[in-house]
Amino acid sequence: MFDEIQCGLSRTGRKWAHHWSKVTPDILTAAKPLGNGVPIGTVMVNTTVLTSLAPASHGTVPRWVARARPAHGASLLAHVAHMESPVRDRLAGMQKTAPKAVTGSRGRGLIWGLELNKSIPDAGKNVVAAARKNGVLVCTAGKDGNVVRIVPPLTIVENLLHKGLDAIETAVKALVE
Question: Per the entry, which co-factors are needed (predicted)?
Answer without folding.
Answer: pyridoxal 5'-phosphate
